[in-house]
């Protein structure tokens, strides 16, 4: 019953803040909910100085939810499937080389750059962190968050090519980032001496390739079932089964659930909508997943804002977080520039202007926080979690607020 009350409060707050935003503020929904949640958290923290019971009460309520398990184990599957339904396969194929390069090589380059930046920055503040944990931090913070990215870009007027690259990269590098994170976490757990290059390669292939293959199977089975009937209620139920059953199967088989959901969503949104659904089913299924996406996004961004109450924000962590956030922007530009030059698609992509937009528009969100919180208890977890929160707040509130102005400026 306590959990139901907590979700009731979250939904009520999200509805109230969404109304205020639509009525007066007119910001992208992700930014407005994150901003409101952050303000509420700060008010609770300030009130805690006068009445310590206020902060304690909110902490106890939020501890009812395991944020990492809630996002990675449940929310992520719905959000990735809903987001990938809108991706057009034709547009994706045109930008396949750049999207795959950014999502794979770009994520690896970013992980290394951010990891070493973190490793050399932390001792300056008297907080040295072992290199393996710095690389773990680089892996969890490098992928752009498709949920945050798509929410912000809805209001930004981008060319079709740039939008496809940003959304496509964020959908796929999310899955790749989780795989890299899981690999480094296993190395940190068993020791690098017990984990060779062959083991790393096999784990990566199992997670990444296995996720794509299983996603194709889930998408194909869903397509065949939907094609054999014409009943929109049942077809929506089949899409839910694809997400919930498919994601659970991925967890059981130890393959990448995020990649599977993206592939299954793209198949359903293209081949499924075109060949397996009637006009009525296409309309209802689209609206169902659009509403589901909005509701879950509202809960997620509200939770991110409120989770500030739970995190230990020392002043030193705040300064480190801001410095690392700026270094991450530089690292992301390099991680995009190298593949674009190496595979010779920089000019066809739109040159440096496009890379600048993709750099500043590559937002971090709930996935990075969830991965940070999923790290087993160790002396460095608190530092990593706190710095990750600062970077996510900077990313969504600073980069999210200014991306539209940057796009307008570069368009001129």
From TrEMBL:
PANTHER family: NA(+)_H(+) ANTIPORTER NHAS2 (PTHR10110:SF195), SODIUM/HYDROGEN EXCHANGER (PTHR10110). It comes from the Bacteria. GO terms for molecular function: potassium:proton antiporter activity; sodium:proton antiporter activity. GO terms for cellular component: plasma membrane. It comes from Dyadobacter jejuensis. The chain crosses the membrane at residues 6-24, 31-50, 70-87, 99-119, 125-150, 171-192, 204-223, 295-313, 318-338, 383-407. It is found in: Cell membrane. GO terms for biological process: regulation of intracellular pH; sodium ion import across plasma membrane. Keywords: Antiport, Cell membrane, Ion transport, Membrane, Sodium, Sodium transport, Transmembrane, Transmembrane helix, Transport. Pfam families: Na_H_Exchanger (PF00999). Belongs to the monovalent cation:proton antiporter 1 (CPA1) transporter (TC 2.A.36) family. Residues 14-408 form the Cation/H+ exchanger transmembrane domain. This is CPA1 family monovalent cation:H+ antiporter. It is a multi-pass membrane protein. InterPro entries: Cation/H_exchanger_CPA1, Cation/H_exchanger_TM, Na+/solute_symporter_sf.
């Amino acid at each position: 019953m306590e959990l139901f009350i907590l979700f009731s409060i979250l939904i009520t707050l999200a509805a109230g803040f969404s109304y205020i935003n639509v009525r007066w503020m007119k910001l992208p929904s992700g930014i407005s909910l994150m901003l409101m949640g952050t303000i509420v958290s700060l008010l609770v923290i300030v009130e805690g100085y006068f009445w310590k019971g206020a902060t304690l009460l909110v902490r106890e309520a939020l501890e009812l939810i395991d944020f990492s398990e809630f996002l990675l184990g449940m929310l992520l599957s719905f959000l990735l499937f809903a987001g990938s339904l809108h991706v057009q396969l034709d547009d994706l194929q045109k930008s396949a080389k750049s999207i795959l390069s950014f999502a794979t090589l770009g994520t690896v380059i970013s992980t290394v750059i951010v990891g070493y930046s973190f490793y050399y920055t932390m001792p300056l503040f008297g907080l040295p962190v072992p290199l393996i944990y710095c690389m773990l931090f680089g892996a969890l913070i490098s992928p752009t968050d498709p949920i945050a990215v798509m929410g912000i870009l809805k209001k930004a007027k981008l060319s079709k090519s740039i939008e496809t690259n940003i959304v496509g990269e964020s959908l796929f590098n999310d899955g790749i980032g989780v795989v890299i994170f899981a690999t480094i976490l296993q190395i940190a757990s068993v020791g690098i001496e017990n984990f060779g290059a062959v083991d790393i390669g096999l784990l990566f292939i199992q997670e990444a390739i296995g996720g794509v293959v299983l996603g194709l199977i889930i998408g194909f089975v869903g397509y065949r079932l939907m094609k054999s009937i014409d009943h929109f209620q049942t077809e929506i139920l089949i899409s839910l089964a694809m997400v919930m059953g498919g994601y659970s199967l991925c967890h059981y088989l130890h393959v990448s659930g995020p990649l599977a959901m993206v592939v299954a969503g793209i198949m359903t949104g293209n081949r499924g909508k075109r060949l397996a659904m009637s006009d009525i089913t296409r309309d209802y299924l689209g609206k169902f997943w659009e509403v589901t996406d909005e509701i879950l996004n509202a809960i997620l961004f509200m939770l991110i804002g409120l989770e500030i109450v739970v995190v230990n924000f020392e002043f030193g962590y705040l300064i480190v977080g801001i410095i690392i956030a700026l270094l991450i922007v530089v690292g992301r530009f390099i991680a995009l520039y190298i593949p674009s030059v190496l595979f010779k698609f920089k000019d066809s992509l739109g040159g440096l202007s496009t890379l600048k937009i993709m750099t500043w528009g590559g937002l971090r969100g709930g996935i990075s926080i969830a991965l940070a919180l999923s790290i087993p208890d160790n002396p460095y977890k608190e530092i990593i979690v706190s710095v990750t929160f600062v970077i996510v707040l900077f990313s969504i509130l600073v980069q999210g607020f200014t991306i539209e102005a940057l796009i307008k400026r570069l368009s001129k």
